[in-house]
């Protein structure tokens, strides 16, 4: 693209960053990040989020955090990217702390943020944190059926039957009860 004198825009760069997540080499990832800096795309929220993911998925969490810290205007996308990076690197307590920091900083989590955080809680067995976050989500934000399904699976996985029943009653999933049983049963295996 550059050889033909066509300059990539921010959407193209974000897509390239997403694809580069498959690269195993930290050096190549740094080169791609260098191109982002050279083109001055680091100020664009979704591009910065992809750079954070780029480093987070190869275990370079310190690089991911320094990119995140340098982002002048953070949004839910960049916060979710750093939370996911910490979870990906089994730094689950740090990921939950970042989620709490996000909220205390006045940023509202979106559907994907909740999905990432609940998945991290499931991965690490942080059932109490998952319940706290789920209750926050239920009372302050609109929870989707997908998020109810995640929390029901998590609670079933850790055999918290009463909380599963309470979650089902709080959700609109009561009308889809035939969908609940397989989720709950599969969570045992």
From TrEMBL:
GO terms for biological process: RNA modification. PPR repeats lie at residues 75-109. The keyword Repeat applies. NCBIfam families: PPR. This is Pentatricopeptide repeat-containing protein. One of its GO terms (molecular function) is RNA binding. It comes from Quercus suber (Cork oak). Keywords: Repeat. It holds the Pfam family PPR_2. The keyword Repeat applies. It comes from the Eukaryota. InterPro entries: PPR_At4g14850-like_plant, PPR_rpt, TPR-like_helical_dom_sf.
